[in-house]
Every structure is written in structure tokens, then in C-alpha cells.
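User: Can you help me understand a structure? I only have the sequence.
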Amino acid sequence: MSLNIELIIVLMAVITFSCRYIFFMKCFPVRLNHTTKKILEFTAPSVLTAMWVPIVFLGHKATENSLLTSPFLYAGLITLLAAYKLESTLNIVVVGMSTFVVISWLI
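Assistant: Let's start by predicting it. Here is the structure, written out as C-alpha cells:
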């Protein structure tokens, strides 16, 4: 049995929406204990780390560059420094993307 891709996307969206909606409904009170709330604080950084680590450390394999000449690595390092110094997320993203474009152009 094969499902078409549109149906799969719609089903994934419905499942994601329903799981998230439970926490915002007033008629279905869900209370999380303190430990669970503390653990969930690490969810966003964990997901973001799972996304950027392969790009930064394995992105050079998509091109002819080695890791030490990879624009992904240097743009990632400069973005980390920008995140440490700047508070605005938009500024951090602009610095990271600009750095990547400039380094890619130079290398």
C-alpha cells in the first residue's frame, strides 16, 4: 500500500498540531511537574544542535573542500561568537549568513 506524499504531510501536520494543542486547551488541563518542565527547557537547544552539527562538520563533504577549508566550519564558529556577544537573534542570523556567503566567495 502506498500513500501519496500530500496525504502523509497532512497526517503529520494533524498529529503535530493535536499534540501541541493539548497543552494550550483550557478544557483539558495538563499539568507538568517541575522536573518535566526543567527537562523540556533543553528541547529547543537539543533540536537546533542536532540540525547544525551535521551541517558544520559534514557540510564540507558536499563540496571539494576539506574540513579546515570549509566555509561551514568558519561561519559556524563566527556565528557562535556572535551569539555569545549579541542578544538579537536576527543580528546573529544575519552575521552567520553573511559570514558564510563571504567565506564561500573567498574560498
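Now, to help you interpret it: The CA atoms of residues 7 and 13 lie 10 Å apart. DSSP finds five helices and no strands in the chain. Let me know which part you'd like to focus on.
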